[in-house]
Amino acid sequence: MTKGRRRKIALLLVFALACTLCDFNNIGIKSAFASEETVSDTTSSVQTIKLKSSEWSYGADGDCRLELGNKWCNPSHEFSDRLKQWSFTGIDISFYARRVNLSLETIEDSEAEAQLNFDSNNEDIYNFTDGGVATTTAKLTKDAYYTVSYRGDTLIQFANYMAVRIPALDKESYLQFEDVQVTLYGAVQTSYTPTPTETPDPIFHGTPNYSATQQTRGTDDDFRVGLTYVSADWKENNFTDFDTDQVMQVKGEGEYSASYTIATNSDIGLLWLDTNLYKGSRMEVDVTGVTITTPDGAYQKLYTLDNEKLRQPGSLWGYRNTYAKENYAATIKNENLRYEYYISEEYDNYRKKYVAYNFNALDGVNLLSESKITVQEGAIITVNYTVKQRDDYEESTGAPTSEPTSTPMVSPGVNPTSNPSASTDPTEKPVVHGTPNYSSTPQIRGTDDDFRVGISYASDNWHEDYFANITTSHAMQVTGEGNYEISYTTADDDGMQMLWLDTNLYKGSNMKVDVTGVSVTSADGTKTDTYNISNGKMIKPGSMWGYRDSDDIKNYAATILNPYLKYYFYINSSADNYRDEYKKYGFDSDDSINMFANDVKTLGTGSTITVSFQVKNVKEATTEPSAEPLPTPVIKPSAEPTAEPTTEPCDPTLPPTFVPSSEPANTPEVSATPIATQQPKDYIDNELWARKGIHAYIAYQMNGTWDYRNTYRTSKTDSNYNYIKAGGEEVNAADVQVRDVFLNRDGQYTIALKGVDLSASKAFNILGIATDISAKTENNRNGIYSDVKVTDASIKIDGKEIASGMNLPQKENENFYCFILKNCFGIENSGPLYVESKDEILPTPEDSIEITFTISGLKVALTDLRNGTYKDPMTGEYIQNADITQADIDASVDNSVAVPSMMPTATPTVAPTVVPTIIPTAVPAPTVAPSTEPTTVPSTAPTPTAMPAPTTAPSVEPTLVPSTEPTVAPSTEPTTVPSTTPTTGPTLVPSAEPTAVPAPTVAPSATPTIVPSITPPTMVPLPSAEPTVTPGDEPTIAPTEEPIIDPTEEPTVTPSDKPDVTPTPVPAKTPAPVKKPAAKGTTLKNKQGAYKVISSNAKKPKVAYSNVTKSKKVNVPKKVKIAGITYTVTSIAPKAFANNKKLQKVAIDSNITSIGKNAFRGCKNLKTIVIKSTKLTSSSIGSNAFKGTHKKLVIKVPKKMLKKYKKFLKKKGNKNVKVVKA
After folding, report:
1. Cβ neighbours for 190, distance < 8 A, ≥ 6 positions apart
2. Is the bond preceding 313 in cis, omega lying within 30 degrees of 0?
3. ∠ Cα 43 44 45 (to 5°)
4. In which residue ranges of the chain is pLDDT below 50?
């Protein structure tokens, strides 16, 4: 094999370790191109081929790839027939990249490079990361079309591999590819004939000359070894499978040999010894020689350390898969695996002793003296090896001194083939495994009426562990619903650290496993400790049902005890394992799962742990967790006027007008309301939500911070409208005002939030108008209100109008409709404010959100509500609300029936009518948007240029923020906040309170009113966005009690209780300018460092510590005062201290809630960090925050946080860090 060919193959690092490492279940996204045709330009020999989704796939390796073909990783992953028939001199691959912004946020960069990597039938024409021909790359910066390309002058053909590769992003990134197109230049059609039934060349397997009893996981004194061999042409391979008996038994230290009989004439490609030893093992396998014996046995060739045909050290010991930390292996030859994985400190396989051999880091591993060794069919390869205790194993810590010892992932995160770090809890004892007392026929994937269950168990100090392997016979068969028991016999005497039931059920299953009790019986049977719900020794619900690995969404498991898994993953609605039923138990989301009321101990070696469990079908009872949930948010309501509306029919294109009624409204019964079980929230208008019918409210979910208010009700007894999260926690009733509305007729409504600071987030993931309008979905086939429409929507953020005139798409969320302004999680229904670029048009609010909208099409739903035929999709109950009047119904339309209005409208409509009017308007006036159909009779005059016009009637609800322009007609109800400019005419009813600053009306009221309106609004009003303008020449009729000498820094939220009798002698003074915090994103500096403003909220401005002078000691303060403004320091920015070689000690104060990615990276002399904050979590500390710090770094933490912080601080880049109490 030529050196050039070897270099090309080096790209596939993981593949070289084993074909089994590749994920062959590639996922494709449906191409937006409907056409499958090939477009040919015969004059220029250019062929353009729009690929179907089946003709490309996402790559299986670690980074993000769009693969056209990859036969190296999967022989069946061929190029499509439409590509293989062409030779070409140049190629373009064009594609649309979606969710680029979300993907870039994961790497905290503004761009990611897309490369063209390929192999061809010409060994000199290729391109991989380590070299090759020149190609054109693309910089991904936003959602858009991109092209990568190659141009040459030699005809080539597709061979083994071609892909668009984005090395900066991993395969789990948000990035999606669409509309993939290939353009071939200098294209010549070859004589290739498509052969759909073509079978690949057969793969041959030789014979291992050893066998032993099957063992999944070994111990230091009893484990298994297997010889892995692959020929250079890949026509023969033998990969060790520890679930079979084709393994060799090894019992402790000593000299051993393993041999394998070759099946084909070939060159040696890959050669190593696999073992079933894992992290925590103290043993090491060193190869001392390789012998090749001819088929007739007459000749042997020796490659040994003594004759120097085998280079020192003979083999390299480390994880077989350097990415996944799987089993250990002794590698002899694997030129796709570079030496750097063993000699560079940043990798898990690093061993200090290997550095002494002066390997070239980028060379592939080959310890045989010859690069090409040919063997014949029937030849025998014998590998001699020594088993000994690791020479770098530290007895005091139970861990290698130079090999990183990161704590493993444990469900979510626990890998059944990975043992958590022995360095966390010192032990000199080898890991042992107990015995499952059950068996059945193996089954890969279960069904609802036939699946498998297995116990997973780990002891306190990891002396013993057993992780269920459901695909083997060591599993228990379950055949449908019922009560079952399963048991396991321990091999050690220790406390219990982890216990759960694994299953081979996956997404789509309707079954649920609930643990009802656990008992522990001593080996002699004389004592049994029983833990169950009825005796109070196990807390409800006994176990948590969900994906075993919530990050990768794998099989379902019933978790009883797991210190590495938080309740958060089951009670937070944005998590994959969320189940509404678990919220009622009052779990703390930051606590680890433990369903035992007391510590659980085994009763000595040989104890039997029995788990009782119930299996039931929950198809009708719960909603299946989604593989990619829409992280959905929740908000709150405001009182609705209870006055009876007029009985005159309203023009459906105009907002309805409400007049107080002399008759009291009927009080609806709330006992039958599905949401009556909700706990009242001080910031929610519970009276409004007790009204049976249809509500609307602002729903949102923020990027990064996961602040939210959910967009749908998720269970029969619980609703998410009454929980609002902002600034990382539930809002305080004293700080927030919420307006939700009850939809009792078609018309214009306003919903709003004030006092909700969401500025810590970069952007909205979701923003919409959530409703409880019953939707017609897969879960709710009786929903019939899909014709409800929301039009002419406008939005204000912090009092500033961002957009208006929007028609919102209708989206089904579970069982209800939400009307979307922005949705980053769906290509369809993404909303008018979703933009495919970094130029975000929707700012995040520091204080308020207000959405005004017009809704139509409620007639059918309102009729059902009045008649008692409206079915709640969650409870199945029929709801009746007699308060819905016939006037409400008549004022609403059925959008599914097109009926023209009989008479022209008096003024132009805000939005086009659904159907044409019979008679044109008397006076030509422009509509804001054109009608969907032409009018029956033409207008008598041309339509003048469109101009915005004031509304002719007041809104249904008083606005929370005053209008910036006067209305044409007076309001029928008082405004709760004075207008910023005088009205053009007198108001019919006086304002409830005088204006904050005197300003004259243009004309006086006809008569003074004696009392305020009958039904003042109950909603606490929002203040004006800005103070009122300079007062007029004359005082107001009803001024404040005293002149305002010193105005407040902010406008008041609530007006004075009563107007004064006597006017003030002079107008109030104009307010003095107020100092404001610097704008969000501004960098501020003082002598201690630099600070980036992350929230410019006037009341609570916040900054991130972003830079520091090269000092030895630094204190990150609680607060900092710059330019007269005090800012709270809540975070340490990414790379804040990076590469500060002088830094030795850092003190982090108590307000810090997050530490950015690479914050202390490269601070090689940093020996001490003192953390006073109790607000940090694993997710709030970025990756590699402490990477490259001193090997003896000590982090001092608050005493009460010691146990919690220990678990995740070691995972942030420095695995040797010592965490102690301050």
Report:
1. 85, 86, 87, 157
2. yes
3. 100
4. 2-37, 41-43, 195, 197, 395-428, 620-679, 714-717, 778-779, 781, 898-1070
Angle at 727 between CA 723 and CA 732, to 5 degrees: 50
Q: Give dist(CA 52, CA 28) in Å, integer.
A: 10
Q: Is 76 exposed, middle or buried (0-12, 13-18, 19+ CB in 10 A)?
A: exposed
Q: How far apart are CA 869 and CA 878, in angstroms?
A: 6
Residue whose C-alpha is closest to residue 862's, from 954, 784, 768: 784
Instruction: List the structure tokens of 1115.
Output: 């204190």
300 Cβ neighbours under 8 A, 6+ residues apart: 291, 292, 293, 294
Residue of 1006, 974, 962 lying closest to 660 (CA atoms): 974
**Spatial separation of the C-alpha atoms in residues 1132 and 1171, rounded to whole Å:** 12
**Residue 644, CB-side half-sphere exposure with 13 Å CA sphere:** 15
Enumerate long-range contacts of 73-78, CB under 8 Å, 24 or more apart. Answer: 73/12, 73/15, 73/19, 73/22, 73/24, 74/19, 74/22, 74/24, 75/200, 75/203, 76/24, 76/200, 77/24, 77/26
Rg of the chain in Å (alpha carbons): 36
Q: How far is CA 610 from CA 454, 500, 602, 641, 864, in A?
A: 12, 12, 11, 60, 53
**Tokens for 470?**
């459901």
Percentage of residues in the chain with pLDDT exceeding 90? 31
Kindly state the DSSP code that residue 663 receives in the 8-state scheme. S
In angstroms, the CA 241 to CA 284 distance is 20
Q: Is 445 helix (H, G, I), strand (E, B) or coil?
A: coil
Tens digits of residue pLDDT in 644-665: 333 333 333 323 322 223 333 3
pLDDT tens, position by position, 149-199: 999 999 999 998 999 999 888 766 778 888 899 999 999 987 655 545 455
Which residue type is seen at 1159? A
Q: What is the pLDDT of residue 39?
A: 56
Predicted TM-score (pTM) of the model is 0.31
CA–CA distance from 1163 to each of 124, 145, 166, 1178, 1213 (Å)?
44, 40, 29, 21, 12
